[in-house]
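In the laboratory, one determines a bound structure by crystallizing the protein with its ligand and collecting diffraction data. In a computational setting the workflow is compressed into a single prediction: the sequence and the ligand go in, and a structural description comes out. We illustrate the idea with 5-O-phosphono-beta-D-ribofuranosylamine.
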Amino acid sequence: MKIAVLVSGQGSNLQALIDANLSGQIVGVISNKANAYALQRAQTAGIQTAVIEHKDYPSRESFDEVMHQQLLDWEIDLVVLAGFMRILSSSFVQKWHGKMLNIHPSLLPAYKGMHTHQRVLNSGDVYHGCTVHYVTAELDAGPALVQCVLNVQVHDNTDTLAQRVHQLEHFAYPQVVEWICTGTIQHLDNGSVVYRKQLLHKPIQFSQL
Ligand code: GRF
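The predicted complex, in structure-token form:
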């Protein structure tokens, strides 16, 4: 399986995927920011990179189309969004239906969108974590595959939560990608997901409680 990782920033999840020695091959990394540290991580690992800056394109659709062509050139089977900070057009999402993953720093469907750690603290939640899900046109709403849960501690702040959630992400994302590479997780044309030959009705959960 040929994998592309889309990034905008630090790329710690990209690093976790590189370090996991997946059964699939990360053949390319695309960044919409030329200064993303993730690009250095890719280069160090000998992975080809492409910088496609959204500000160089007149519309979301034209930017997405250039990315789509790059993914086709690389003959990609699976697109992994890892801190990619652009909303994708519905036509792009449709083209990669069932072949594109995202990781989100909350227990979806709670806290879609930004500033999840602050919102968890504001609500006084006891649980927090991350979700790996397939990407559909609606933001942060596609079928959830894996969730990792932690217990919010009294001394937690946004920095400690970000760090603790990142640790969970670095476990969850390589695990899900490996399961897809090995066929343990399959996406069916009707949008449902199969895990170990059974329909997946709710995300597989790991907890650090
Ligand atoms: C992660 O917290 C991920 O959940 C979110 O963006 C962040 C990316 O971090 N989508 P990194 O660039 O992989 O370090």
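The mean pLDDT is 97. Keep in mind that any predicted model is a hypothesis to be tested, not a measurement.
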